[in-house]
Design goal:
- By secondary structure, this protein is α/β, with parallel strands linked by helices.
- It folds into two domains: 104 residues, Rossmann fold (3-Layer(aba) Sandwich); 125 residues, no CATH class.
- Helices cover 32% and strands 15% of the residues.
- It is built from eight helices and eight strands.
- The strands form two sheets. A four-stranded parallel beta sheet has the order 2-1-3-4, with helices on both faces.
- Strand 3, helix 3 and strand 4 form a beta-alpha-beta unit.
- The longest helix is centred in the middle third of the chain and has 13 residues.
Length: 254
């Protein structure tokens, strides 16, 4: 963990990726407000990031830059290690040269497993993702883990920028991929990220221009009943139609 650069008057902290547990614990102990910069937080045009970052780039990292430009933050912690991506390292450089706040690089290589009760629960898929992404801001696991459910479908990948596609899946969808690593608080756990259930039809999702698209496509090709899908800023009608058709043909809603 990097030495703490927080000051007593720091009240609003941005995070990118999943910072190490020690960082989150310090932020929790200091009772600062954590802003997850990977998620859309401001109503500003994504094009305002163009002077700083290419348009043909991961929509999540473009969102990070958008949030950082418009939010009043005291510091930003950004994971630049194997738990995030090399592109995040370059974004850290851009933010450090652009903003007048500390940009604190971290490398989350935590190995203590917190488990995946949310990923394997019967909650609506959208609610699963909301709780998992919110959980990054806490050093503790869910206080009351939900009851597990037998899977009928799978969603493998990162949290999409457009959460509306999650409403297309049944509640009995299990989550795999990097989102599973998020809930487990081990974002660099490569074996866990590559894990999927060959017994259930699975959408292998990746954000366009993300390095994980290669792994998503590779795993989808190996899966007995998998579909590779990538989306950019918003999931259009074509992407949603592919999801619906895949799930219906797989008999998920039978």
């Amino acid at each position: 963990m990097a030495p703490s650069l927080l000051k007593n008057n720091h009240k609003n902290i941005g995070i990118v990726g999943v910072p190490p547990l020690a960082v989150i614990r310090e932020l929790n102990d200091r009772r600062v407000k954590i802003h997850d910069l990977d998620t859309p937080l401001v109503k500003a045009a994504i094009e305002t990031t163009t002077p700083f970052i290419p348009e043909v780039y991961c929509a999540i990292l473009r969102t990070v830059v958008l949030n950082a430009l418009h939010l009043a933050l005291d510091a930003i912690y950004i994971d630049i290690g194997p738990g995030k991506c090399d592109c995040a390292m370059h974004v850290a450089t851009i933010l450090a040269d652009t903003l007048d706040v500390p940009i604190i690089p971290t490398r989350n290589e935590d190995r203590h497993r917190f488990g995946n009760p949310l990923c394997e629960s019967g909650l609506p898929l959208l609610e699963k993702f909301l709780q998992i992404t919110k959980g990054v801001q806490s050093a503790r696991p869910p206080a009351n883990p939900p009851v597990p459910a037998t899977p009928t479908a799978g969603f493998w990948g990162v949290p999409p920028r457009d959460f509306s596609i999650l409403e297309l899946f049944p509640d009995t969808t299990h989550i795999y991929g990097w989102t599973r690593c998020m809930e487990n608080k081990t974002p660099a756990a490569v074996e866990l990220e590559a894990y999927c259930n060959p017994a259930v039809p699975t959408i292998f999702y990746a954000q366009s221009f993300c390095a994980k698209t290669a792994l998503a496509k590779h795993l989808a090709r190996q899966h007995p009943h998998g579909l590779y899908l990538d989306c950019d800023l918003q999931a259009g009608s074509s992407a949603k139609a592919k999801i619906q058709a895949f799930l219906e043909l797989a008999g998920v809603f039978a």
